Amino acid sequence: MSTTILALLDDPTYQPKHPPVDGRVPAAVARWATASQLRWFRRYRHHLAHGQDLAHLHTESPHHTDWCCAPCQAEYEQGRGVMTDGWCCCHDARTGR
Ligand SMILES: [Zn+2]
Ligand SMILES: [Zn+2]
Questions:
Q1: Of 10, 13, 21, 33, which has fewest CB within 10 angstroms of its CB?
Q2: What is residue 14's predicted lDDT score, i.e. its pLDDT?
Q3: For residue 28, how far is its CA from the centre of ligand 1 (angstroms)?
Q4: How many CB atoms within 10 Å of residue 89?
């Protein structure tokens, strides 16, 4: 391995392929498997612009696309709601709704 390549690997500013572009999700992400999409959103969720349509992407749950729903998370913090039954939120496809 050349010293140039080693220097690149050591570079703390190195970005993996397909980082967000102006806070938006690059089109390539939509073609990935669910697990890869989830990994990408774990890495970049705090770097995303608000108000973009993520309805076709797995952002934080393997059981539905888009973000988990905030009211369910609020219920969970109060110790009730579908999340206490093991669903990720009411969008969870396994709930059959
Ligand atoms: Zn969910
Ligand atoms: Zn919900």
A1: 13
A2: 56
A3: 23
A4: 22
Task: Evaluate whether 89 touches 82 at the Cβ level (below 8 Å).
Answer: yes
- Tokens representing 8 are 């690149």
What is the residue extent of each domain of the chain?
1-53, 60-97
Name which of 93, 95, 66 is nearest 81 in CA terms: 95
DSSP 11: -
Residue 91 alpha carbon to ligand 2 centre in Å: 6
pLDDT, one tens digit per residue, over 15-45 is 667 999 999 999 999 999 999 999 999 999 9
pTM beyond 0.90: the answer is: no
Tell me how long the chain is: 97
Choose among 49, 95, 92: nearest CA to 69.
92
